[in-house]
Amino acid sequence: MPQPNVGAVRDAQLAQVAAALNGLENGSLTAVPADLSHHALAGWMEYAGLTRSWAAVTPMQANAFLQRYAGQPVAERFREGWLAEAGKRSDWSAFNAAWDDRVTTETLRCYRLSATMPAAGAAVPAEWSQNALSSWLKGTTPPQVCSAPLQTLVNTNTLTDSLRWERIRLAALEGNAGVIRDTARGLSSGDAALALQYADFLSAPSADKTTGWPRTPLSATVASVGLATLAKNNPSVADSQLPAVASALGMDDLQRGRVLYQAALWAAAENQPDAARRFAAVPAQAYDERLHEARQREAMQRRDWRGVLQAIEQMGSTQRSDSRWTYFEGRMKELLGDSAGARAAYSRAATKAEFHGYLAADKLNQPYNLCPTTTVADAADRTRIGNMPGLQRAMMLYGIRRQNWAQAEWSDAIRNLSDTDRIHAIEMAQTNGWFDRAVFDLNRTPNEQTQYWLRFPLHHEATIVSAARARNIDPEWVAAEIRAESVFNPQARSSANAIGLMQVIPATGATVARSIGEPWNGESTLLDPDANIRIGTAYLRQLKDRYGERPYYTIAGYNAGPGNLNRWKAQRPGWDPDLWIETISFKETREYVARILSFATLYDWRFNGNAIPVTARMNGDLNAPRKSFTCQTAATPAK
Question: Could you tell me which residues come within 8 angstroms of residue 457 by beta carbon, excluding any fewer than 6 positions away?
Fold first, then answer.
């Protein structure tokens, strides 16, 4: 079994650095300790001290910091904060001294316009006008700090009517009535009146408001955007108004399709009986991957197998080649009695190392196709990669739980690495306990996705196995949950305050801990990897006991909660697992269930070299004959 072979970063002072950062941030320290002044993370310690109070930072301090750490991520992180502070102060001299043309933040670029704005009555440089126009000519509302420089465009008569109408068009596509009203102020009274009618229509669409509009592409665009908004909430009203408005304003198929698209999506989401009719009414030009997918799912919910097959056949070649749709092409042909066509589709899907590829292989009773690769670093590579200052700083910062800063250092360090060196850097990250780099940064070439040893790490293996056996759950499922929930980051915390490896909500954790006799010391308990695994695995067991022996129900409930799960079970009782999963109404949960089952198969391979068939795993049959893996062709990597 290949293991990451680029070494761990060791630093005897790292605990002192962590303490110093805390002290500099809370004010108990006012300067970097002398014995840490030359440490690799000295810049981040200085940053912590300076940014505790931006109002106290002087231009001299800011310029000195930027010069001292020029070229390092800490300088760029500081630059953005300092530019925002200098802009708030209207200290344009300090702002310009720190400016870098690579800054892309819209607010800061507007401050730059103010910092370089010509004096009243002075000639306006062409470059300044062009930069200001770039900020103005958008359909979105600009930041408030843009007001002064953009007013200069108005005062200098830079804005022509054609530019104003183009901005109105862009704002209409965004549905932004406020920008249209703002832009209308510079038009003649007649044109301004029409623009304001457009804005009023977008705010409250109604066909009677379009009476008297000129038959122009812009009128048709505004009407289609407004009616599409209406269709999201009241498709019947939008439907009834569309024909007359489309005829009067000369809408093309794309503009009509914009409205009909939203009406079809709404009808499908609400399980309306006329959903199929609405999908059929959408012009072909208005279809995208989302609508094709929604159409097949609506047909599947009605058990209209021929309708599902037709929806798949109408997909573009790229979408249709995805193993999901190739598998369901085969599945529908099987249900319709076309065994030869089903086998052909299953054969195409089975080349792919992902959930639907595994299902297809099960249908064909053949091994799973998996072609893992490894890239081994020699001694010179290990030394060279391990000594890169940016990577060392990234590993140190990650080790002291400064993940955002670590990511800044990491992104900068790998930006210009060769593909091979980037893989070695990812090995280095895993050696240092940072596992998600393989998930986020093995994506430049398709072949990188076959680095399964890196993409599916296995940490805390002994605890996973013991906790799983204690709850009579297979450890591969537990590992798959950890990989999907946190990528083995014990400090992970979601916006919903789900914590740790298995992303357990504290209230749930406390209840489960009491039920199994696990010591509970508040939510910090969930930051302990072993405790988190024991609690999370026990919770899986409780869910499985509650929902029956079908793991896909448990996985869906783990992600979406019991209320949603019970609703889906009631809607589709007795459905085959693959069809039940595909018709889950929440995209996140639908993909989550497939991902967990796929990941469990790959972790089965990691643990055992073979796997319980996915079809058996879905049904809770852990005693089924195990499936082997083979590299028969260049397998498409797992997602």
Answer: 430, 435, 438, 483, 487, 488
CB atoms inside a 10 Å sphere around CB 166: 15
Can you give the pLDDT at residue 500? Answer: 97
Compute the distance between CA of residue 614 and CA of residue 57 in angstroms, rounded to an integer.
59
Place of tokens 């931006």: 54
**Ranges under pLDDT 50 in the chain:** 1, 3-4
- Name the 3-class secondary structure at 283: coil
The pLDDT of residue 376? 81
Helix, strand, coil tally for the chain in percent (to 5): 65, 0, 30
485 included as an active-site residue: yes
Whether the pTM exceeds 0.85: the reply is yes
pLDDT of the residue at 7: 64
Tell me, what's the pLDDT at 122? 87
- State phi, psi for 516 to the nearest 5 degrees: -110, 5
Q: What number of other Cβ atoms are within 10 A of residue 223's Cβ?
A: 29
Contact 99, 82 (CB under 8 A): no
pLDDT for the residue 548: 80
What stretches of 69-176 show up as alpha helix (H) in DSSP? 73-89, 92-98, 106-115, 126-136, 147-155, 161-174
Query: Which of 174, 485, 523, 582 is flagged as catalytic?
Result: 485
Give the pLDDT confidence score for residue 120 in this predicted structure.
Answer: 82
Structure token digits, residue 337? 């009695």
Phi and psi dihedrals of 141, rounded to 5?
-75, 125
CA pair distance 60, 218, nearest whole angstrom: 52
CA–CA dist 89, 83 (Å, integer): 10
Nearest Cα residue to 478 out of 355, 607, 359:
607
Residues whose CB falls within 8 Å of the CB of residue 240, separated by 6 or more in sequence, listed in order: none
Q: What CA dihedral angle connects 406, 407, 408 and 412, to 10 degrees?
A: 110
> Is 504:535 a contact under the CB 8 Å cutoff?
yes
The predicted structure's pLDDT at residue 371 = 94
Q: Which residues contact 2 (CB under 8 A, 6 or more apart)?
A: 374, 376, 453
